[in-house]
Amino acid sequence: MSPESLIDIFREALSVIVLIVSAIILPGLFIGLIVAVFQAATSINEQTLSFLPRLLVTLFALMFLGHWLVQTMMDFFFEMVNLIPQVIG
């Protein structure tokens, strides 16, 4: 197995990780930004005000995107299992 093919496998693994993490994190970041703008506009400096909306949006993102996230991880895992003979031999 050449080093270039291992780098391709590593690159694909990183792209799957970035895709899955961004699908979970980005909605919470957008809600956090909206709450921060609201807090700045109304001069409310409560730290716990932004926690609950971000938590709920993250949970909803996991709930609605969970099937797709698991399917993406399973596809990558099956692809890696199929590549085992090529990596070893």
From TrEMBL:
The keyword Lipid metabolism does not apply. One of its GO terms (biological process) is bacterial-type flagellum assembly. The chain crosses the membrane at residues 12-39, 51-70. Keywords: Bacterial flagellum, Cell membrane, Cell projection, Cilium, Flagellum, Membrane, Transmembrane, Transmembrane helix. It is a multi-pass membrane protein. Its main location: membrane. GO terms for cellular component: bacterial-type flagellum basal body; plasma membrane. It is found in: Cell membrane; Bacterial flagellum basal body. NCBIfam families: fliQ. Role in flagellar biosynthesis. Belongs to the FliQ/MopD/SpaQ family. This is Flagellar biosynthetic protein FliQ. It comes from Shewanella frigidimarina (strain NCIMB 400).
